[in-house]
Design a protein that fits this description.
Elements: H1 5-11, H2 37-59, H3 62-67, H4 74-78, H5 82-100, E1 110-111, H6 113-125, H7 134-139, E2 143-144, E3 157-158, H8 167-198, H9 202-224, H10 226-229, H11 232-239, E4 246-251, E5 261-264, H12 274-282, H13 290-298, H14 304-315, H15 319-326, H16 329-361, H17 372-384
Parallel strand pairs: 1-4
Antiparallel strand pairs: 2-3, 4-5
């Protein structure tokens, strides 16, 4: 079914308050008593290992712990609720990356059945790639310190799963969670802006564009806070290595994989659906280059529902072209405020990437496999060039 952006946001329960975060807060743990004893025991073992993960990595025993996890059948996994399946997907993704990329140990090229099967089966359910991606790292990896705490304030939030005990890692996650929550207003403003173009209502369009620019500015201010509690050395050396992708890894025991090796990109902010949605809403054009092909490939690592929202924005009317047609100065100014805000967001992010990765490691390739220096610079320049 072809939906407008408004209809797609509504259909997939993407709200102004949460954006692409789940409609209900993620599960913090399983309820073993609600399942058959064998399934409940397995889920309890997953919960236990998630709590022990930093210690297991420190002592070098994580691979043994993953190997000895109780196995869950495809039927048992299919019986889980969506929230349970998302938690299992998240834990499996963390355990898989911890096992393959254990710091201070040689990488391995196999995932044992105990973690490969739940990772693949849950990923199939949600139309995503079976590897630790942005959705597991951030969208489904948080809890509030207080039940009614605002999601847009990172000090209100905790990470559910971490590779380390460093508060830096928690801060990295919750900054992204807060940005995602704040982006909800921008997503709805962008969708309503497209509706204003459809109905030829320039006054409504000005209002929506002003809301959109304000939301992007608020996201940028949250992102600027990354440096408050996240040390670049800790990020680059201690936990970023676990965000790397898999090269020729065998997923043991998975139906349909036939023992063949698999290669996937690692977790990356380029797998967030915010900027692709806003680019599409505003009609920000990016030249067809190899970098854009990689960016498009990143969409396959997003949840299927989020890809559908981006596609709906892509199909929508071109706001920039409508602004040009009207010739109204107030409309042009409101549109330019949006693209200026978006360019500023990208500029601040680019500076942080240099600070947190290149300045520490000298690397120019991101965990998603792209040359981030060239990629981010081009995206920033092309956004700034949209000024009417």
């Amino acid at each position: 079914m072809t939906r407008t952006a408004v209809a797609a946001l509504d259909h997939h329960d993407i709200s102004r308050e949460r954006g692409f975060l789940p409609e209900t807060d993620p599960l913090s743990s399983f309820d073993p008593a609600s399942h058959d004893p064998s399934v409940g025991a397995a889920l309890e073992a997953f919960d236990q290992l998630s709590a022990e993960l930093p210690a297991r990595l420190d002592e070098g025993s994580v691979r043994q712990a993953v190997e000895t996890l109780p196995e869950l059948s495809a039927d048992a996994i299919a019986s889980l609720t969506d929230r349970e399946a998302i938690r299992l997907c998240t834990l499996s993704g963390f355990f898989a990356s911890a096992s393959v990329h254990q710091v201070d140990a040689a990488s391995v090229d196999r995932l044992p059945e105990s973690v490969a099967v739940p990772l693949v089966e849950t990923s199939r359910r949600f139309g995503r790639k079976p590897i630790l991606s942005y959705d597991q790292l951030c969208l489904h990896n948080w809890r509030r310190r207080e039940p009614d705490a605002a999601l847009t304030e990172p000090t209100n939030l905790e990470a559910l799963v971490q590779f380390t005990d460093h508060d830096d890692e928690r801060w990295f996650v919750v900054i992204h969670v807060a940005i995602e929550a704040r982006a909800g207003q921008a997503l709805w403003a962008g969708a309503n802006a497209q509706e204003a173009v459809r109905t030829a209502d320039p006054d409504a369009l000005v209002d929506e564009l002003e809301t959109l620019a304000d939301s992007i500015d608020a996201q940028t201010e949250i992102m600027r806070r990354m440096t408050e509690r996240n040390d670049p050395e800790v990020f680059a050396r201690e936990y970023r290595p676990y965000y790397e992708g898999f090269d020729d890894v065998v997923y043991e025991g998975v139906d349909g994989f036939d023992g063949e090796t698999r290669t996937y990109r690692g977790g990356s902010g380029a797998q967030s659906s915010i900027l692709p949605s806003l680019d599409a809403a505003l009609g920000v054009d990016h030249a067809a280059t190899e970098l854009i092909e990689k960016l498009t490939d990143m969409r396959s690592y997003m949840p299927e529902s989020h890809r559908e929202v981006i596609d709906a924005f892509d199909r929508g009317p071109a706001i920039g072209a409508y602004v040009d047609e009207t010739g109204r100065d107030d409309l042009r100014a409101a549109y330019n405020d949006c693209t200026d805000s978006l360019a500023t967001f990208r500029r601040v992010h680019f500076g942080q990437v240099i600070q947190y990765i290149r300045a520490v490691t000298g690397d120019t390739t991101g965990t998603g496999g792209t040359d981030y220096m060239e990629f981010l610079q081009v995206m920033q320049e092309e956004t700034a060039a949209q000024t009417r």
